Amino acid sequence: MEDKVDLIYRGKSYKFPLINGSEDEPAIDIKTLRAQTGLITLDPGYKNTGSCESEITFLDGEEGILRYRGYSIDDLANNTSFIEVAYLLIFGDLPKLDQLQKFEDDIRDYALVDEDFKIILKSFPKSAHPMGILSSLTSALIAFNPSSVDINSEKDFYEAIIILLAKFPVLASWTHRKMKGLPLNYPNYDLSYTDNLAYMIYKMPNKDFRASTTLVSALNKLLILHADHEQNCSTSTVRMVGSSHAGLFPSIASGISALWGPLHGGANQAVIEMLEEIKNDGGDTKKFMAKAKDKNDPFRLMGFGHRVYKNFDPRAKIIKTAADEVLDELGINDPVLEIAKKLEQEALEDPYFVDRKLYPNVDFYSGIIYRALGIPTEMFTVMFAIGRLPGWIAQWKEMRFNKEPIGRPRQIYTGHKHRKV
Ligand code: ACO
């Protein structure tokens, strides 16, 4: 096979090498395009642009395949814990028993946060969105740990990773407790990472709390399914910010902001808000289906469609089963969830959605599970962020260790030509 691609421009021929990924996905290497031809490429939304070479996650949108470091997402979701997956993503292999033990113990040891964080938290109004607070508190970690991001020191870098994994769920749970006016919880040393997450969210000062197996298993799956998704908007943001050699913590804080948007991680919140809107409007799903198809109406069916999965979202398949289990076990009778089921069925049979390959994505079902578990809507994207954290860390680490250059796209200028005042 020809390993070069010819480009003919103004009668002159240029050759560009083809580069193949380990799953035989070909790409044109255009690193020298501008230097050779004076041309740049225009690709809004980067739909055709590879921003980096990466060994972390393989995703085939046509076939609905998602693998972390070679392991399929259903294998991981069914057979590992979130913290094993975090180790896998960040360090490249699943941990052996002693490595896992050390990793978990280190995370436990670093779980306390400086009490001054409570002063920062106090200064936010109760109405503040938890994602905004989480982003601010994550940024503040740099002020409390100024020397923890030196990537040339293996020990320091490991410590920065542990600090983040340990303190992030604590801060995340605090955003929820703040919103609800509840006392802040710390993790319990004897519990696992996922158990602790539930503990910090739900534990009341005047009642014992023990998370049910269904709750922990559903949370574990949700976190694993969200743990990485190659170069999506928030991950690209983390890599881009980190490419200026900004530290790990502020880079992650930027990722949180990117994740917040309703077209990305904010979709799980938007799904429930949309379902509530439909319910309050009388529950006519057909009316909203028509709105979603009307090009003059900005309404979109939240939780449907995906930038890369044009067949099905493999995460949605796994999480749909978990959602059914949770709803069954909790015996929940919620009109909003009934509307979700109707909408799902109607969209799967509607030619508009079928022709455009718009299927329910992971956020459609994750919103449903979180609602059934009694997690407030504003917290959904925070839960997503907790899951995505190891992916962000792994991608940031890879970007720095690969010594990637600062991210700096070009543009096609379409404004005024030179004019005088
Ligand atoms: N409802 C109605 N129509 C839709 C929807 C939707 N949810 N999604 C896409 N379409 C239509 C578009 O109008 C377009 O129609 P056209 O070809 O007639 O113009 C066609 O499907 C293709 O849509 P694009 O916007 O080009 O698809 P893109 O890949 O750019 O966008 C996205 C993907 C942003 C996810 C989009 O499907 C969407 O907005 N979905 C709802 C929000 C959502 O659920 N986001 C979560 C994504 S998953 C995640 O971040 C973990």
Can you walk me through this structure?
The protein has 421 residues and is mostly helical. The chain is 53% helix and 7% strand. The strands form two sheets. Strands 1-2-3 form a three-stranded antiparallel beta sheet. A hairpin with a 4-residue loop joins strand 4 and strand 5. It is globular, with a radius of gyration of 23 Å. Bound molecules: acetyl coenzyme *A.
Helix and strand topology:
Layout: E1 4-9, E2 12-20, E3 26-28, H1 33-37, E4 57-60, E5 65-68, E6 71-72, H2 73-79, H3 82-91, H4 97-109, H5 117-122, H6 130-144, H7 154-180, H8 193-202, H9 213-225, H10 233-242, H11 248-260, H12 267-280, H13 285-293, H14 314-330, H15 335-349, H16 351-355, H17 362-372, H18 380-401
Helix pairs in contact: 2-9, 3-18, 4-7, 6-7, 6-11, 7-18, 9-14, 9-18, 10-11, 10-18, 11-18, 12-15, 12-17, 14-17
Bound molecules: acetyl coenzyme *A.
Number of helices: 18
Coarse shape: globular
On the 0-100 scale, what is the average pLDDT?
A: 93
Distance between the termini: 57 Å
Helical content stands at 40-55%
What is the oligomeric state here? single chain
Largest beta sheet: what is the strand line-up? 1-2-3
State the major sheet. 3 strands, antiparallel
Strand residue content? 5-15%
Show unreliable segments.
none
Bound molecules: acetyl coenzyme *A
Count of beta strands:
6
Instruction: Calculate Rg over CA atoms.
Output: 23 Å
Note the run of SSEs as H and E: EEEHEEEHHHHHHHHHHHHHHHHH
Classify the secondary structure makeup into a structural class: mainly alpha
